[in-house]
Amino acid sequence: MGQSYSAAPQVILMGLDSAGKSTLLARLLTGEVMETSPTIGFNVGTLDLDKKTSLTVWDVGGQKCMRPNWRYYLDDCKALVFVVDSSDRARMPEAQKALKKVLSDEKLRGIPLMVLANKKDLAGSMTIREISNQLDLQAHSDRLWEVQACSALRGLGLQQAFFSVNKLIKKS
C-alpha cells in the first residue's frame, strides 16, 4: 500500500469489531445509515471537509484475526482515529490493549490520535473521562490526542470530530 491514492492526508480508522467504524465511515461519506457487515480487509473513501480540505479515510477490519494486519495500513498515516463502543464496558480492556499495541508501532511515532466514543446515544454509555481512563490515554503524553463522543447511527459529532482530526494533523 506504499502509495497514497490522493494528496489528501490519510487517516486510519481502527478499533475492535462492532465498534461502528464502517457505519461511521458510510454515514460521513453518504450522510445516510447503511447496512454494514464485518469488514474483511478495508473500506476507503475521501471525506471533503470544505472546498479546500479533504481526508482519505481508511476503515480497517477490527476482528481479532484482522488486528495483526493493522500495521500494513500505517504507511503514510497522518492521524489515527480509534473507535470504541462507549456502551460496551466489558470490552474496554481489550480495546485498551489493541490501542496500546498499534500505538507502539514505529510508523505511528508522533502521529495524533483521535478516540471516538461511538454509540453515545445508547443508555448507560461511558463518559469521555471514563473512556480516557479505561484506555489509559494519559500514558500517551508523547502525542497529541483527543476524545470525542459521537453516534454514527444518528450522525452526531462526526463532522466536528473530523474537523478536529484535521486540526491535530496540522498541529503535529
UniProtKB/TrEMBL annotation:
GO terms for molecular function: GTP binding; GTPase activity; metal ion binding. PANTHER family: ADP RIBOSYLATION FACTOR-RELATED. InterPro entries: P-loop_NTPase, Small_GTP-bd, Small_GTPase_ARF, Small_GTPase_ARF/SAR. It comes from Xyrichtys novacula (Pearly razorfish). This is ADP-ribosylation factor-like protein 11. Belongs to the small GTPase superfamily. Arf family. Mg(2+) binds at residues 22, 39. GTP binds at residues 15-22, 62, 118-121. Keywords: GTP-binding, Lipoprotein, Magnesium, Metal-binding, Myristate, Nucleotide-binding. May play a role in apoptosis. May act as a tumor suppressor.
